[in-house]
Write a structure and sequence with these properties.
This protein is α/β, with parallel strands linked by helices. The protein has a domain of 300 residues: Metal-dependent hydrolases (TIM Barrel, Alpha-Beta Barrel). Helix content is 31%, strand content 20%. It contains 15 helices and 16 strands. Helix 1 packs across helix 15. The radius of gyration is 25 Å and the shape is globular.
Length: 461
Amino acid sequence: MSRFTNGLILAAVTVTALPAPTLAQLGSYNPMPGPQATVVIRNARIVPVSAPVIENGTVVISGGKILAVGTTVSVPSGAQVIDGTGLHVYPGMMDAGTSMGLSEIPQGAASTVDNSETGRFNPNVQALNGFNPHSAHIGVTRVVGITQVVSRPSGGLVSGQAGVFQLAGSTAPAMAMVPRAALVIQLPSASFGGGFGGGPGGVGGNTQEVNRTREQQLDSIRTLFADAMAYGKAHAAWGSDRTLPRPAHDVVLESLQAVISGEMPVIFPADRAADIRAAITFAETLKVRPIIMGGRDAVSVAALLKEKNVPVVLTRVMDLPSREDDPYDINFTAPARLVSAGVKFAITSGDAGAEVRNLPYHAGMAAAFGLSREDALRSVTLWPAEIFGVADRVGSIEVGKIANLVVTTGDLLEATTDTRYLFIDGRSVPLDTKHTQLYEMFKDRQQALCAATGGSTGCTD
């Protein structure tokens, strides 16, 4: 029997055997959360992050917010009660370095990738407008306890605006906690070390030409910001004196006003020490608030980062060393060394979407190489929330904050820990994912094939 025929029999048997609820869910890999309700989790070990651990405490959530936390909390009448004996309650984690919802299958399926626009200057582009709330990456990410992410565009010199998204909802606007959280500027590299092949900076490389091109690109960004400042002043003048001619509306320059005013920070992807220094210097020139994304060499410029109060979103904690003479644990130990240097940072998976679910294990690896367990947890909860200006809403278990909570069987950063309950915006989130659906779909495939072929194929005694 041909492989094609075998496949048809298997598919037919499998679909026939599927229960109706599973078939109904195949249109979406992210089951919708339930309604906001009053829920009490009691007798649990509560890890607020911003306060000492409560070994046997209670959390009350209602209306999407945390209503009470402590050891002597009364249970509201009619509340759903969850017995948390033996369980742990954590705030939901945040991955601040993703393109989730913008990139589904980067290799071989270009139509599923929408994280960049043509052209070099796209400050008006928003991740919100390309975010796919039904991405298969969302379900498998949130079940490990990641309840919000920063999703950012890429490409060109001024890539567009990143947003902070909660990982539950049917539309992008409903999931957007901060639709316009940060502008992304990709500066041309300030360091050239292409090696021996004649690349930029290598033997035979035209360094002068490379530097000239780089300066032209930097000048074009400076010009864009100068135009945006002039645009803002012209509109402000017209606003105070309507006898003046009304300035023309420009969507590109308008989108930069929050950056120029200091309301919106700027993400500068940079790994090399020279690129990090250049980004900080350039941010000072533009008078904007920088966030370094990447930060492979952040430890070597830690004094400058601390002096300028520039936060870093580390994307390479689990990477192999990039230089031959680097110690094997150079990236594992970077978070602990940044803490010692007084640099604010967050740990991220650095992945577009598929591997964001590994975020807790990046922080766990840092904890195994010198970072305290408390700081490891902060690096994926409270610290990224502070960096992106949402710490008043998420990042810790405090009264008044959004009820983004994960209830686990053990340490949140341990690979052996399971999630028992998940709440996003105070709504109970089903723990079904693409992975669990495929498991249920195919776990009995060999027995189904055996039955379909009358015991002639794929059967064992």
